[in-house]
Amino acid sequence: MHSIYDWFRRHRFAVDFVLMAVLWLVAMPFSVADGGYSSSTVDMVVAGIFATALIVPLAWRRTRTVLAGCLIAGVAILQWALHVPPVPADIAVPLIVYALAAFGPRWASLGGLGLALIGAILLVTRYFYNLTSLSLADIPYGIVMIIMVWVLVLFSWTAGDLTRTKRLREQALSDRARRLEIEAQHERDLAASDERAHIAREMHDIIAHSLSVIITQADGARYAAVESPEIAPETLATIAATGRTSLQEMRRLLGVLRGDDEASTRPLPGLRDLDELLLGIRAAGLPIDYSVTGEARRQLPPGAELTAYRAVQEGLTNVMKHAGPNVQASVNLSWNARGLTVTVQDDGRGATAGLSTAGIPAVPMPSGRARLGAATPVTEAAAAPSGTGGGNGLRGMAERVKLYDGSLSSGPLTGGGFGITAFIPYSEN
Fold it and tell me: Does the structure show a pLDDT above 70 at 176?
C-alpha cells in the first residue's frame, strides 16, 4: 500500500489526467444533453465546448495549479458574459478552488476564493434571480441561494486549506528527519575521526617508545659486544622485555578495537607505572633523575593519569632519539593546589630549529635545574625538536593534555638541552 501511495505522489499529472478524463466522460453527456435548456444543435455544441474547457484544465490542478485556476476562471467569466446557461461541468469551479487552497501559493488561494464568492453572486443574479425584475418577495430566496453556493465554495476552500496544512506539516517532518539524519551522520563522522586520532596517539606512544628503546639497545650492543661480550645477554634481555611489554600494549589496544570486553577493562598505565617505565629506560642506558614535589590534593582520573604517563614516555623517547650521546634526563612531578605539572628535561643538543605543531617558533625555557619543581601552568606551545618530523608525538601529547583542559609547552632550554612541561588540572566533575 505504501508503494502505491508513493507511485501516486511521483506521477501526479498522470493521476490527475485520468481523474479529469473520468470526470469529462461523466459530465460531458449531461452537459450536451442539457444543451443550455434547449434542443438546438448550436446550444448543445456550445455547452459541450464550455464543458470541455472547464474540465480539461483540471489535469494540471497539482502540477500547474495557478495556470489551471486562471483558465477555469476565464472560461467561467466568458460563460457568464455570453450568457451561456450553467452546465454540470461547472463543478470544476469548486474543484479548482480546492486545488488552489491545497497546492497553490497563498495569494492564489485567497484570490481564487474571492473570485468564487463573487462568481456565486453573479451566477444567482443572472440565471436565477434577475435584479431588473426581482420583487421584494424574491430577495430572501436569492440570498439563501447565494449563501448555499457560498457554503459549497467555502467548504471546498476549507478542505483544500486543511490538505495544505497537512502537506506542509508532513514536509516539515520529512525535512526535520532528513536534517537529523545528516546531523547523525556528521556525529558519526566526528566520532570516527576522534577515534582515529585516539588510535593514532596510542599507536605512536607504544611503537615509538618501544622501537626507540630496542634500536638504542641494539646499536649499543653491536658496538659494545666486541669488547665486552658479557653485555649481550643483558642487552638482549632488555630488548625482549621491551618487546613483550609493547606486544601486551598492542594486544590491549587491538582488543579494544575488536570490542573485547576483557581487553577493554584491563587497567591503563598510570602514575603508579612510572617506576617500571623509568627502570626500562635506565636499562637502555639513559640516566634519569626522578623526583616528586608536593602532595596530590585529590586523585586524577584514570585518563588524566594516562596522559601524564604518556607525557613522560614521549619526553624520554625524544631524549633517546634526538638529545645525542652522554645526556642526562630529569623527570619531575610537581603537585599543587590546581593540579599536576609534569616536566621532562635533558642537557643534550636541544632544538635550535624547533617549531611548534601550530607553526609557532618554540620559546626558550629556563635551564633544567632551575625549572625542576615549578608548579605554575605554562602556555601551550608544543614545540618539536629538530628531526622529529614536524612534532607528531608532541602534537598528539598536546591533544591529550587539551582533553583535560591542560596545557603543554616545549622548547630549547636557555642553558642547553630541551624541555617539555605539561600541566594537568584536577577534574572538578
Answer: yes
